[in-house]
Fold each of these.
Amino acid sequence: MSDFIPVNEPLLAGNEKKYLLECIETGWISSEGPFIKEFEQKFAARVGRKHGIAVTNGTAALDAAVDALGLGKGDEVIMPTFTIISCITQIVRCGAIPVLVDSDPLTWNMDVTQIEAKITSRTKAIMVVHIYGLPVDMVPVLDIAQRYGLKIIEDAAEMHGQTYRGKPCGSFGDISTFSFYPNKHITTGEGGMIVTDNDELAETCRSLRNLCFQPQKRFVHERLGWNLRMTNMQAALGLAQLEQLDKFVDRKREMGERYTALLHGLPGVQLPLAHTDYADNIYWIYGLILDDAIGFDAEEAMKRLASKGIGSRPFFYPMHKQPVLKRMGLFDGEHYPVAERLALQGFYIPSGLALTGEQMERVVEQVIETLAK
Ligand SMILES: *Cc1c(COP(=O)(O)O)cnc(C)c1O
């Protein structure tokens, strides 16, 4: 067997090394260094927002966003069941109630037509999560949020460089968040960003990030925060990566289109949608959904691919099926058939920026061989 093809490898071929060296040479390695502000400003500008608050990871960004909005006991937040656990943890921990909607079978994003029926007098916010490369259909969500006076938290962790009807993803939430984990379009190793236009929310997030130290009485606290500070070294990486974002998005699109061209027509498998009427896919990852008729599930397909040297990852496991949440008494008897099917039959193949054309051909060959049987 030739070399294993991992599911993701980042590309660090720009100014990453130069900026990192600068951190070491100047001694600015903590969260006080100059790259942080520069990265925050340039990233926020890129998504058309007034404020950027760099944090330790995308999960932390969501935690702070939920807390900054003042959500608490008994407040209801409508969100997709098909997402990562990061979206729900702070909602549950603060005593708020996650209210779920199912997914659209083609875009895999939250089915926005299910939102309105879930609204009650306790609903405070909608958390939208753009999944795998296509944005959530935002116009209906914005309309509902406005009519019912709801806040929007926008998880744009997978959407750097993506737009919805020409407007950047990350510009739609009262608070929006990003991740810079190495499998995202741009990476800082670990890292995240909160963006908002609201001065007060931005100030709250900055305070929450820094343990809610007070400017005047540093060690006297009026609120509980976290230490979510990003280091200058992470911001150095982020800045270098941000310079290459357009190139990265072009490359991801090229890769997605290539995969689709090579896999198109393969029986028994559903490929990602290339376009909707509001966006072109940026293929954060390249997902496949097996037809039930194929006779085995995603887990089995991934096992077979691994034995042929091809890395892959399962799709998200829905929130309403999470053992830890079920044990808390959440989502009892609830079913979301589309999300359940995505979790059972969906997985993704190597999609990282460092993937070569040759590797892609090997991946496709093995996928075809695996699924054709
Ligand atoms: C990656 C991701 C996160 C979490 O980001 P981390 O930086 O890994 O904590 C949150 N939401 C979505 C949709 C993600 O893809």
Note: The domain at 16-242 is CATH 3.40.640.10 (Aspartate Aminotransferase; domain 2).
Amino acid sequence: MTINTKTGRLYIENRAASDIAEEFGTPCYVYSKNSIETNFNRFKYAFGERKNLVCYAVKANSNIAIINILAQLGSGFDIVSGGELSRVLAAGGDASKIVFSGVGKTHAEINYALEQKIKCFNVESESELYRISNIAKELNVDADISLRVNPDVDAKTHPYISTGMKENKFGVDVEDATRLYKTATDLPNISPTGIDCHIGSQLTDIAPMRDAALKMVELTDALIASNIEIKHIDFGGGLGIQYEDETPIHQEQFVEMLLEVMGGREQEILVEPGRSIVGNSGVLLTTVEYLKHGSNKNFIVVDAAMNDLARPSLYNAYHHIDNILDKEKRPLKRYDIVGPICETGDFLGKDRELSVNEGDVLAIHSVGAYGMTMSSNYNSRVRVPEILIDDTHAHVIRKKESVEELFSNEQIAP
Ligand SMILES: *Cc1c(COP(=O)(O)O)cnc(C)c1O
């Protein structure tokens, strides 16, 4: 365990959370380097000698220090914007291991990705095929593409993070895929080299993932039979983690399922995990500003808010919250943990039993994925610092934003 409670005190690796809060202030995001590395390596070791590329989904946590840790372990990257491409390159990532997903790639983004010679575009529509072909022709290069296929399986996750059903904006229908691959083959400066899918996020049932994988290999066989050379199959990301009492899909279990479905097929296997690498590797430390006892509800008002961590208000997501110092034998009370923002939706946890005093520090767990990357400046709150713990060492990997930076791009009109 790299985030644990030793003798009633929370530790991130070998550093006490209380020290970190004192040294860097709160709120702050704190990550365990060891946890990130371990989660990535579990995918790699599970594949063993099998030809594979684990493409970390950058949008889960795009801090360049985290990208750099993964790049050093040989990771590939799944990006969804030109901004993410810049980050990966700045962090030392290898362009030839980057796949570019997303339904709305702009002309400028495609141009940039072609110049940088990324591995593959995960194409989401027929129009995008024409656009990539045109730009590749102008640049006189070949674009390797894969079609994001919508396998039409119900991933049984939150509707906002389900992406693999027909009524969804993502990907192309299986029935349409063969025709589109033929179109792609005929287009100038386009080489179809792969096929991909991503059916949703925070999946805790492996059955829909297996159904999707089966549809993918079936389609691959059909494409190969019509002389379309598929060199890699990208099965996407989406593995769920434990936030509350879910049973997560382990990396080994997922990879084993893929290897079984692949059988003797020799295509390179790509996966695009985000949450399962960084989710449980981070906590958000926040200080109790006020305790407020009402007639039928008690509130803990903390210094973190929905702008720092949007998941509770956005998806009604659960994050475990505890006091970093175990207040043993003091009475527990039921509280809603809320931030200072002027929105009723500004809560971080509801109906939790805690023992707290004003001034105590709380840890909000499992915030390494879709935490900092979804943060905003709402209410003119500065973005919080990010700290990476490596054994006993604490590295500031993002400085606390300054108030001047908040409006440095604005100007008063003449
Ligand atoms: C978000 C996303 C991922 C990563 O999903 P996780 O649930 O974080 O593993 C992978 N691929 C695509 C195309 C995505 O949009």
Note: The chain has twelve helices and 21 strands.
Amino acid sequence: MIRVVSSLVVALGATTAALATAPHSDFKLSLSSMPAKPAARQARVRASFAASSSRLAARDTTSEPLFDYFNGTDLQWYGDISLGTPPQNFTVVFDTGSFSLEVPGTACGAACANQHQFDPSLSSTFEDEQFNTTITFGTGIGVDPVVGNNWELWLSFVADILHVADMTIPFGGFFLITNQTSTFAPDPMDGIMGLGPDASDLFETGGYPAIFGMLFVPETEGGAGELTLGGVDTTKFDGPLLFSPQQGSGNWALSSRGIFVNGQTASGLQKNLTLIFDSGTSNMLFTKAIAETIYGMISPDIVANPDEPGTYGIACDLIPTLPAVIDITFAGVSGQNAFNLTIPSSELSSGPFRNKPELCQTLINVSEGFNLVGLSLLKHYYSVWDIDNQRMGFAPNGF
Ligand SMILES: *[C@@H]1O[C@H](CO)[C@@H](O)[C@H](O)[C@H]1NC(C)=O
Ligand SMILES: *[C@@H]1O[C@H](CO)[C@@H](O)[C@H](O)[C@H]1NC(C)=O
Ligand SMILES: *[C@@H]1O[C@H](CO)[C@@H](O)[C@H](O)[C@H]1NC(C)=O
Ligand SMILES: *[C@@H]1O[C@H](CO)[C@@H](O)[C@H](O)[C@H]1NC(C)=O
Ligand SMILES: *[C@@H]1O[C@H](CO)[C@@H](O)[C@H](O)[C@H]1NC(C)=O
Ligand SMILES: *[C@@H]1O[C@H](CO)[C@@H](O)[C@H](O)[C@H]1NC(C)=O
Ligand SMILES: *[C@@H]1O[C@H](CO)[C@@H](O)[C@H](O)[C@H]1NC(C)=O
């Protein structure tokens, strides 16, 4: 999910500089960038953590399964974390498009009735950091329109022990959701855990190299997935990983050298573009000119759906006959050739529009100002998010 800056209600001091330079992300309170802790408290929590830390230090990677939230189309993958002492369990989207962890707290009450809610009073290691804020997202959980602030969380900043797979963060700063818009209510997962390109503190604190691997298997192939922290799971892909350098800071982003549709290109597609890679967005977002050029090359029958601004669709019965292979060329890291990542024709449709079931929504949504590839592409590759080396790697996952 990509955050939009709109309604931060708390002055964030030094972090407001990040706001000004990151148009579609918000401030960068990473999970372990905690306010200073009283020394006695640190010692106490560290002692409770010491027993496991030597075991963790001996390990290179730790993995956990991901589950596909499929509702007509693949929407999101999510997995387990736990927080507090004793641990309270939650499911979260591991979101490369955001930077912090949010889970519902008991203060959310009825608005979070379908999700697990963290109860601070049950955790002996909990700490309230005493400030509140909000986050607004620019892409939601599904493929439905984001309208104004209809994906918004009200948050309270807190800290506690965090476990993800076998990684433990003894002082994790995170947000408890105190209220949320109703768009979040039907989601099967509880929260969101941001894994942006500057999450190195998280891995250092947890005792793992700052790199993670992700596998997203589409529902049609079983709907599984895996998150590996500290490295990659080489059993989940064949062939070499091809790496491209991270562009800029803030979001995971690569420089594309050009886009091809069914092997053809067009002048509007042969240019350098910065593409954000977001594991928390189901489909793809391009500026209008690029989206309409790509759509024009697939079929003149793909048209904007005015009922849901920014979306496009085509008569569902035309989908099976349409080749719509999209190749995107990326620069290789130094010494490596450029390479293509390919989105197969099977991604063209994200299923019928709710209010116009004969019209199927197509995979690219228009978003002025930035270009983003989400799970439509990521579910066909094993992806490596290499924080230490500021690069991303890909190898076909066979799906
Ligand atoms: C939390 O998850 C762990 C690991 O899956 C499990 O062993 C434990 O029973 C769960 N705790 C609760 C309260 O559900
Ligand atoms: C934050 O919000 C919670 C829930 O609405 C409230 O109980 C708490 O007092 C607020 N904290 C601050 C520091 O404003
Ligand atoms: C596409 O983006 C536009 C502009 O940001 C937004 O209004 C629309 O709701 C989005 N639609 C989807 C399907 O994400
Ligand atoms: C929670 O947010 C909704 C808007 O989604 C608002 O109508 C409601 O009043 C809020 N509830 C509280 C307790 O602030
Ligand atoms: C699936 O989508 C439908 C609308 O198409 C919605 O009403 C329902 O709540 C969703 N189900 C789940 C489990 O999210
Ligand atoms: C990418 O794919 C296009 C065809 O769609 C092809 O012409 C081009 O050579 C490929 N580029 C690389 C680097 O493989
Ligand atoms: C894209 O950027 C590369 C590297 O900076 C440069 O060599 C190439 O000429 C650029 N291509 C276009 C079409 O601007």
Note: The first strand starts at residue 3 and ends at 4.
